[in-house]
Write a structure and sequence with these properties.
516 residues; alpha+beta; D-Maltodextrin-Binding Protein, domain 2; 2 domains; four-stranded mixed beta sheet; globular; Extracellular solute-binding protein; membrane; SBP; palmitate; Bact_solute-bd_prot1
């Protein structure tokens, strides 16, 4: 992925917003408008007739736009299409996607959140969707450098069956966001190792960083699920699996390193570094604790340096939330969260005629051109923003037409790190610091060997196994069970035929996909 350039469009993001994705989103514009010639309404040759395209996709905006929206109309005009878009709310998307796949009643552009969806995997094997491989060479913007990795890792048996929806690899994920003003008040350096991190948390508890003379600080606003990255730090891998020298994968859930990670968390718990209700807190309660300005650390994606940071600052004007770039384990190995360079995929069912498939690809090609990509987020120059000193400055029309707050830029994401590191109203100094931090994160390469793999046994058995281990970990951390109970459970799981079946399937899937 390209290193981020200077932010040419910061001002408009302040006013009209970029999608924050419950979690996160991104920038870098290069490429030119291009694609195959326009085709007719049903994929014919009459270029005067707009092509009707039925699309279903996620939308994180608070208010969904429809075909009366000026930007929607402009997109149709520029692509010679008639768009019929069904927006999916994140809260119900998974259920609706599963019902749709099971019914077989698929829109011409079908969105699925994850390629690991069991029903999708069955349909891929059945050949329900078009193989797009022969066509892609004709669409220059779909072949831009920043998109090459997402096309490669989403191949199915070496073929491009899906159109991946771009998403930045770095900047998202749950990772410590620390009160820099508390560090400064105690004259502490930014922690770089787990030991330093632990010592900072202790200092936050014991040395009154908010300066009010009371022991009211909560060092780390977290619940058990918010600390999953600790297990990854100890295991030196992303996800639930670690690659072994013989090209097999081993589950980190049963590793000795995960036991050490659990005991690290237990020590912090015993020292009172988490909220009193740590074991039963919901995510919303964790975030409320952070927003109360009583906590020194929370686990968030980088855009929360302002999304949550602004709320904390409203309570304590001195507050300054800063993401950590990485943390090192005892072996000196750095860890930072990173993910696949896409989020969700589009597929075209074979019921769609070939000529129309090409028109759909032309539509996406425009969406990934510099002109189309920026229009879907920022709107139209002179209408939704004006260029001032090289920056896009939003007009009032940007707000009324809902540019940059989801909607169209949810369909095709902005190819930019801003998706994950920027937020509405973020001050320049916070943004520039985030740019530096995400640039540093990109130098930390942590393997994720199971990221694109599918296993039926995993889907069938692993959730139950994982829950047993997670429940036991909480019991040990909070002192309700001795560590010997954990050891006994892990030995049982190691010999469980279901776990062995999962491991064999995952290893085989890895070897088939990556071992040549």
């Amino acid at each position: 992925m390209k290193k981020m350039d200077a932010k040419p469009s910061k001002s408009i993001l302040k006013m009209s917003g970029v999608l924050l994705l419950a979690s996160s989103l991104l920038l870098s514009a290069c490429g030119s408008r291009g694609g195959s010639p326009s085709s007719g309404s049903e994929g014919g040759t009459d270029s005067s007739e707009p092509t009707s395209i039925t699309i279903q996709t996620l939308n994180y905006a608070t208010e969904f736009i429809d075909s009366t929206n000026p930007l929607w109309k402009e997109l149709e005009k520029r692509t010679n299409t008639k768009l019929n878009i069904t927006w999916l709310s994140p809260s119900t998307a998974e259920e609706k996607i599963n019902v749709m796949l099971a019914s077989g009643d698929l829109p011409e552009v079908t969105f699925v959140e994850t390629m690991q969806n069991p029903q999708l995997q069955k349909m891929l094997k059945q050949g329900v969707f078009w193989d797009l491989t022969p066509f892609l060479k004709d669409y220059p913007n779909l072949n831009r450098e920043e998109l090459k990795e997402m096309w490669e890792i989403t191949k199915v048996d070496g073929k491009n069956i899906v159109i991946p929806r771009y998403y930045p690899s770095f900047g998202g994920g749950v990772f410590p966001m620390i009160r820099k003003d508390w560090l400064d008040a105690l004259q502490l350096e930014t922690p770089k190792t787990l030991d330093e991190f632990h010592n900072v948390l202790k200092a936050f508890k014991e040395q009154d960083p908010n300066g009010n003379g009371q022991a009211d600080e909560i060092p780390y606003a977290a619940n058990p699920s918010a600390l999953a990255y600790i297990y990854n730090i100890f295991n030196e891998t992303q996800g639930a699996w670690k690659l072994q020298p013989d090209n097999t994968l081993s589950p980190i859930i049963t590793s000795d390193e995960s036991r050490e990670a659990m005991l690290w968390i237990k020590q912090a718990y015993d020292e009172g570094l988490f909220p009193k209700d740590f074991a039963i807190m919901k995510f919303s309660q964790v975030m409320d604790t952070m927003r109360s300005a009583k906590a020194g650390v929370g686990g968030m994606s980088m855009n929360h340096a302002w999304v949550t940071g602004k709320a904390v600052k409203d309570v304590d004007p001195k507050a300054d939330l800063m993401p950590l770039a990485y943390l090192e384990n005892a072996n000196g190995v750095k860890y930072t969260p990173s993910g696949s360079p896409y989020y969700g995929v589009y597929l075209i069912p074979k019921k769609v005629p070939e000529a129309k498939v090409k028109k759909i690809l032309e539509f996406f090609d425009y969406g990934y051109s510099q002109e189309g990509n920026e229009m879907l987020t920022y709107g139209i120059e002179g209408v939704h923003y004006n260029l001032e000193n090289g920056k896009k400055v939003a007009t009032p029309k940007a707000v009324t037409d809902k540019t940059g707050d989801g909607n169209l830029n949810n369909m095709i994401h902005l190819v930019s790190d801003d998706m994950a590191i920027n937020a509405v109203g973020m001050p320049d100094e916070v943004y520039e610091r985030n740019v530096g931090i995400v640039t540093e994160r990109k130098t930390v390469k942590v393997p994720n060997p199971s990221g694109e793999l599918y296993s039926e046994a995993y889907n069938k058995y692993y959730p139950e196994i994982s829950k047993k281990v997670e429940d036991m970990r909480v019991m040990v951390i909070t002192g309700k069970e001795p560590v010997e109970s954990y050891d006994k459970l892990i030995e049982t799981i190691k010999s469980d035929p279901k776990m062995k079946e999962i491991t064999e399937e995952i290893s085989k899937a890895y070897q088939e996909k990556f071992v040549k």
